[in-house]
Each structure stands twice: as structure tokens, then as C-alpha cells.
Amino acid sequence: MYYFDRRYLPDLSTLQPGVDPSFIRQLPPHQHGPERMEERPPHTQHVDWASMFPNEIILHGPTNRKQVALTFDDGPDDVWTPKILDTLKQLNVKGTFMCVGQRVQQNPNVLQRMVREGHVIGNHTWSHPNLTKIPINEVKDQIERTANEVYRIAKVRPILFRPPYGALNIEVIRKIIQLKDKIIYWDVDSLDWAGLTGPQVAANILAHVRPGAIILQHCAGGRGESLRDTVEALPYVVQTLHQEGYQFLTVPQLVNIKPYH
Q1: pTM to 2 decimals?
Q2: Between the CA of residue 209 and those of 21, 65, 77, 243, what are the distances in Å?
Q3: Helix (H/G/I), strand (E/B), else coil: 160
Q4: Would you place residue 193 in the very low, low, confident or very high pLDDT band (cuts 50, 70, 90)?
Q5: Does residue 20 sit within a domain?
Q6: What total of structural domains would you count in the chain?
Q7: Which sequence positions are flagged as catalytic?
Q8: Domain limits at 176?
Q9: In this structure, what are the phi and psi dihedrals at residue 8, rounded to the nearest 5 degrees?
Q10: Strand intervals (E) in 61-196
Q11: Over the chain, what is the mean pLDDT?
Q12: How many beta carbons lie within 10 A of that of residue 135, not counting itself?
């Protein structure tokens, strides 16, 4: 159990170096690398895109009900994703998993478990590139290849799509719309990929949550990266928000759209 001021905002300058080596597993990296701050556009661009394309780009759910959605990017892997699934099962909470095609291919049983346990699968490209930095025909391939692999393994074809790093431009947006997918952003970033401790991740989420929030977390990392902080933070975050009257939904439930084509 963690004890901290609900209003606390984590200071990145206080991050603890390293993690417990017993929690590190050598995972295959994304072809285009793990989460990196320099690849992410300013958050204001997220708001601008959502304003320009209100029916295609979703930043959050309705703000008049105490409902939120937990989302988890970059999986599935065979280390951290199962731990997160175990925790969600214990808490009786369903999440939305934005999956990378390479890892879907490598961990089919974990993907099948997600669907079997009532979680929703979204598309997070095949190899996690910044879509604004690759040719538009490759953007289509990144999305369709992942959707086809998810369908092959789990017999569902995702409608939800999250661009790596949140990076978009008009050309990419038009291609995604052409594919009839919905772009799912977030309005609460846990920063769990940045090396925060469990209490810092929990504090960062709780300090920013509001009704309708879509919360960004991760269920897999790059080579040697630990997501122990996400696993540790989840019970406290869920229990605290439950006590405050919040309900946890999947993204399609939160914004009233279909989960799959």
C-alpha cells in the first residue's frame, strides 16, 4: 500500500536509477524503438487534432459521469502483460490493450487470454514507428498487417487505433479514416515508461484523473525495461478511484462505439 498526497505531481529529477534486476527480462525491441519523449508531439497537438476530427479522434469520454478507461500500450509480452492481466482479474476490471503486431505474433496465447477475459484489443501498428516519418503506403501496411494478425489469432479485427508516440499528420489521419478505424488518444499519461516508481506512477494518474479520462499505461517495454511500476501502481489506482465513485470501462464502453469491425 502506498501513502502519498493525492495532489502530488512526480518530479522527474528524482527518478531512482535502475530497477530490481530480478524483474528485468530481455524482450525483443520494437523495430523502431521503445517510447521516447522526443518522438512525442506536444500534447496541445492532440487537442487540436481531436477538435478538427471530433468523430474520428477520441481524446476522452463524457465528462458528466465518473467513468474512466484504463489503456495499455505496446504488448503483449510474456512477462509484464500477464502480470497486468492477473492484477486486472483480481480487481475485476477490464482494460483496453493497444497491441503491437510483432508482439501479437510472438505471444499469441497472451492475446487470446486478453480476449477470453473480456478485455478489448486495439491496434498500435506492427513495429511501433512514428507514422509521420514513414511513407504513407507503409502506414497502411503497419495498420493492416497488425489487424490481420490479431484476426488470425483471436478472430477479432480492431476498430481502435493508437498511433505510436501520439504522432499524426493530416495525411496519416486521412489514411486511418479511410481504413474505417477510430483514433484513440488519451488525456491522462501515467509516464510509466519513463522510469517512475510505482507510487510516482499512481500519483501521476490520480493527480490528473477526471470524469471521462482515458488513461495511458504500458504492458510491455523495450529491451531490459521494467514495468514493475505499472504492476505496483494498478491496485492502488483502482481502489482509490473506486472509493471516489469511479467506474472502470473499456474505451468502446466509455465512448459508446463498437470494439471491432
Answers
A1: 0.84
A2: 32, 12, 27, 14
A3: strand
A4: confident
A5: no
A6: 1
A7: 73, 218
A8: 40-254
A9: -65, 135
A10: 67-73, 96-99, 120-123, 160-161, 182-184, 188-189
A11: 86
A12: 9
